[in-house]
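Lab notebook, bench 4. The sequencing result for the construct came back, and we need a structural model before the next group meeting so we can plan mutations. Quick request posted to the team channel:

Model the 3D structure of this chain.
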Amino acid sequence: MKVLVTGGSGFIGSHLIKELSKEHEVINYDIKEGYDILNKEQLNSLENIDCVFHLAADPDVKSSINPSNCFEKNVIGSYNVLEFVRKKNIKNLAFTSSCTVYRQGIDLKEDSPLEPVSNYGASKAAIEMFISSYSHAYGINATIVRFANVYGKGSTHGVMYDFYQKLKKNPDKLEILGNGLQKKSYIHVTDAVKGLITAWKNTKGLEVYNIGHDEWTSVNEIAKEIISALKLNPKISYTGGSKGWAGDISKIRLNINKIKSTGWKPEVSFKQGIKEYINSLNSLTALSNP
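Done. Here's the predicted structure in token form:
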């Protein structure tokens, strides 16, 4: 099968291409490779594509407080991808959405109401609705996966990366946004990618899957693990409030029973995963400071 992966040079995309390439011919359609989902002519020049995994997006939830930061790439760019799929009569599509399409809560299922509180979450929810209509109107097998917070080797976004960078800059103090009690589901990138491929293989028509972990972790617990891994003893301060920034979700845990019913389950524990992630960041730091 000839598979197109948009955003294939990104954090999750690079791991996905590595896995898909074991069985399929894969094209990496990424801005770093000179490809742009905002360029319709460039997209439409591609031929003989059997399936599209659409990952390309502006992933920064914080900066999406300025809606122009995510609307063009996440919404208009995704619309261009959908039109490409329709015009080329491609019958298989997988889209990486996000838990940010929900508001907050525990045991959130795929049929829970969508109520995003960030512009990033709104952009993902908007494309989910378009995918639904395209699937029904044009007979496309469409997989939507709503990821929990994905972390692991190659990640340069999120609270873990922010804490690491802050402590490398100043190992004597760590400022935590909010009150540190924010609690969310995190999933290692290797588990996330295997879950995405499993969901895709089990889709006929339109299917939505939550992909996360049964564990969930507070910001304070993340700080503790990173401080321990770096063998530091910083003074911790808090900015206060139940949220770290505008659009933050203070508590969220996904119900993952649907994807687990396919036989998939998360294999990397949080403690194991965060140690591997910190080791990968330490390796990069060592390489940049020989």
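The domain at 2-151+187-211 is CATH 3.40.50.720 (Rossmann fold).
Will bring this to the meeting.
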